[in-house]
Design a protein that fits this description.
Elements lengths: L11 H6 L2 E6 L4 E8 L12 H19 L4 E2 L2 E8 L6 E12 L3 E10 L4 E10 L1 E2 L6
Antiparallel strand pairs: 1-2, 2-5, 3-8, 4-7, 5-6, 6-7
Length: 138
């Protein structure tokens, strides 16, 4: 699948999370992203620490808008609300997100994170600021 992500270097935070594109529907503003959490991500209980779960969701939500605009719009997160539904065990994860509404300066995003068995681990909503992306015409 050819996407905007093939034309830009991967951010180091995304590399750490094992970010990889699974599916993209630019017209609908929807994306599916894969992640991998290993023992470096665990809390003392043996679960993926909540901050990493939130980071995976944040790194799914923003790319939904970025990809749907083919890099024309970058959306730094203003507010991220994460709801933890089930313990996240180390392994593979799938984040699914969509652009709920895009205005001139504010964007609303929503998404979910699933483990390898398809269990819903967490949900998130975000408010982001629409800014010119790296592919925006000057």
């Amino acid at each position: 699948m050819n996407s905007i992500f093939d034309r830009l270097p991967m951010p180091s935070a995304s590399v750490l999370l094992g970010w990889h594109l699974i599916a993209l529907d630019k017209e609908r503003g929807e994306i599916e992203v894969g992640f991998t959490a290993d023992e470096r991500f665990l809390n003392p209980a043996g679960h993926v620490q909540g901050g990493f779960v939130a980071a995976m969701l944040d790194d799914t939500l923003g790319p939904a808008l970025f990809a749907s605009t083919d890099g024309q719009v970058y959306a730094p997160t203003i507010s991220l609300t994460t709801n933890f539904v089930a313990p996240a065990l180390p392994g593979a994860f799938s984040g699914k997100a969509r652009v709920v509404s895009q205005g001139k300066t504010i964007v609303f995003l929503s998404g979910e994170l699933y483990d390898a068995r398809g269990t819903l681990v967490a949900t998130a909503t975000a408010t982001a600021r629409a800014m010119p992306g790296p592919m925006a015409k000057a």
